[in-house]
Fold this sequence. Notes:
It is globular and about 60 Å long. The longest helix is centred in the C-terminal third of the chain and has 32 residues, at 319-350. By secondary structure, the chain is an alpha/beta fold. Strand 6, helix 6 and strand 7 (161-165) form a beta-alpha-beta unit. Helix 1 (17-27) runs antiparallel to helix 13 (319-350) and helix 10 (245-253) crosses helix 11. Helices cover 40% and strands 13% of the residues. It has a single domain, classed as Aldolase class I (TIM Barrel, Alpha-Beta Barrel), CATH 3.20.20.
Amino acid sequence: MEAGADPPPGAGPPLCLADVERAAAAVLPREVWDFIAGGSGSETTLDANRAALDRLFLLPRVLRDVSRVSTRARLLGGPAALPLAVAPIAYHRLVHPEGELATARAAKAAGVPFTVSTLSSVPVEEIAAVGGTVWFQLYWLREPDRALELVRRAEDAGCSAIVLTVDVPWMGRRLRDVRNRFGLPGHVRSANIDTGAAAHESPAGGSAVAAHTRQAFSSALTWSSVAALRARTGLPLALKGVLTPQDALRAAEAGVDAVVVSNHGGRQLDGAIPSADALPEVVRALDGRCEVLLDSGIRSGVDVVRALALGASGVLVGRPVLWGLAAAGEPGAARVLELLAEEIEDALGLAGCDGVTAAARLRTVRGDAPAGRAPVAGPAV
């Protein structure tokens, strides 16, 4: 089956994100699947992201009126139908001809923000023209003026927030891509920054995409760069890739509006802490100074409620949306967001929560916490 083709007769609609993942894996070329699914190094952190969420258990409350459950939230100053945004992912046209246009339309229909990657395969202006809430993810480039020009383009296009990725001085060593000598096919290009042939022609024993990003991205991104960006834009600003309370506090002092607790989906430093494990300390340190979002490993509505219980205002969801796009185009991406909406409402209600705010008062425990150790917990109601 080709990417974007209809599912075989009788297959039925996917009932969970794992169904969508299997459908995408069945249609994508192996090297493209590896590019999307893989992590860095031995993929320890990639696997740990899921393990951290799976060992986090909710303590549901009972005898609460959940006859009406709201999934609405506010993210980066704006309303959202769900406490989630579509994470920035490069090169959607790798998996479907319409690329980001299709996923942006699905996000608009679902009422959730869509984050345009600097490395999107459709220009930011065309994606923003789809409508809905659109954020722009920025990689700091070797020429800072070019990075700030991208911010201007995003503002002019109507994007409502800037998300600066801070954990990529260069791309992590992703062994699947190295073994595949992965490069972009001819029909896919970075539409916002000129890559020439760099991202298409693999060096011997390497990844063309990694080689290109090493050429394009700045490894000198510092707090002074954040200050320059903060001074340049009046849009809400989030830093994505924060894992320590020290960096989170520094971000708040720098005037950012949100931090995204993220290890880049296990694609940067292998051996970095799982994002869900880092979240509670970041939330405690910030104590409301700015918004906190969680990224990396979200695969269900229960995961979203887990993040809310740990103090996040919402999450970013990446790979699953791309699986949906690969499996069935725009309807596939829309189905992923529909499933998450159903699962979030279900999890909230069954946990005794009538909305997102109530979920923040749920307590949680670690399933593998040794006897005598205090569980990771939110405040009791």
